[in-house]
Every structure is written in structure tokens, then in C-alpha cells.
Amino acid sequence: MIKYDLNLLDEGKKLPLVEEFYTLQGEGIQTGTAAYFVRLGGCDVGCAWCDTKHSWNPTLFPPVATDDIVQRAASFAAKAVVVTGGEPTTYPLGYFTSKLMEAGIKTFLETSGAYPLTGRWDWICLSPKRNAPPVGNIHQHAHELKVVIHEEADLLWAEENAALVADTCFLLLQPEWSRREQLLPQLIDYVQQNPRWRLSLQVHKWLRIP
């Protein structure tokens, strides 16, 4: 991956912003809840089935003042921000989350865990990938474990990660969108046989919202 010059980000006071929008959370435990989404550019995890490949090259997205992002997020009723990517933990997020919290905004993170965790988070959704496993102790900080299933081997990967999270962590299996019709019968059966897991669906794609 083309790396971003972190000096340009002024210790997180600027971030490579791909897009920001107010919508409903479309997957995971928070499905159906309103939130302001902030997508950061840059990812070297390289999932072949990724649906946001346009965000991979961070140099396509000039640094944006973090304070300005917070100000825009604060104008929406939900007072909740979901930071996603790309892979957002590529960047220092302590300044961003501190400013969000000062503004009374709850902080939600969507991450593969491929880089060390920074920032203060009300909710962490860990979505680990086999080609770039999580680092550090992020499993113990995760509030939900959401594993994307592309092939049968991913179920073993899901169980390996489930063994590392806290007992209070929600466990979710999510079919990769392009193979959902083939995978859903298997995943429904798996959840029925292993009821500590839940099924996560990308509802926003059916609703045709961001």
C-alpha cells in the first residue's frame, strides 16, 4: 500500500477523509441506528471482496481538519460517529475521539485490528481478516466480533477469534455480499447449531442507503 506521510496529519489533527454522511447503521449489533459515518482513506489489508476498494490509496484524499469533521458531525441529531475505512487504525485517533467526546458524541469504531488501537471508544466492532490478523490486545476491547464469511475456512477463523474476546462480546457472522445467496443457508444452519453466534446482514444494501 502507498503509505501516508503521518507528518502531514499533525498527530491526528488532520485525517485523510474519503467521505462523511449521516445514515442508518446497516450491519452488526447497531443495525438500524442513526449515526454519522466518517470513512478514512488507506488500507493494506487487501481483501479481494472489499466493497470500498476506492478508499485503499490514502494519498487520493488530502488531509482534512479533524475539528471540522467534529463540527459537522455535531450538527446531526444522533450524536454518534462511526469511524470506518479503509483501515482507520492506520492513523492516530486519540485527538479525534477526545474532540468527539467533548462534543457529547459517542464514538464507534469499525476495524480489522491490523494496527495498534488508539483513541477512546464507546463501541468497538472488530472484523478480523485472515490475511492481516489483529495485533495487540484489541480482542479484549471488542464489544462485537463481526466475521465476514467468504468461504467455509472463514468459520474456523471466526471460532479462533471468538476464543480471544471477552464473554460479553457479541459474536456475528456476516456473509460476503457477492456470495450471500450461496452462503446464507449454511450460515443459518451454523447459527442454529451454535446459538452464541448471530447472523449479520448488510441491510443498508437492500435499503439502498449509504
Model description:
The protein is α/β, with parallel strands linked by helices and 210 residues long. It has one domain: Aldolase class I (TIM Barrel, Alpha-Beta Barrel). Helix content is 24%, strand content 24%. The protein contains 6 helices and 9 strands. It has a 9-stranded mixed beta sheet. Helix 1 (66-74) packs parallel to helix 2. The mean pLDDT is 95.
Keywords:
24% helix, globular, single chain, TIM Barrel, alpha/beta
* Number of helices in the DSSP assignment: 6
Helix content: 10-25%
What is the string of helix and strand elements?
EEEHEHEEHEHEHEH
Under CATH, the topology can be stated as: TIM Barrel
Number of domains: 1
Structural class: alpha/beta
Distance between the termini: 26 Å
Short description:
The protein is α/β, with parallel strands linked by helices and about 210 residues long. It has six helices and nine strands, in the order βββαβαββαβαβαβα. About 25% of the residues lie in helices and about 25% in strands.
Secondary structure layout plus pairing:
Elements: E1 14-24, E2 34-40, E3 63-65, H1 66-74, E4 80-84, H2 94-102, E5 106-111, E6 123-126, H3 138-141, E7 144-149, H4 153-162, E8 170-175, H5 180-193, E9 197-199, H6 203-207
Parallel strand pairs: 2-4, 4-5, 5-6, 6-7, 7-8, 8-9
Antiparallel strand pairs: 1-2, 1-3
Helix pairs in contact: 1-2
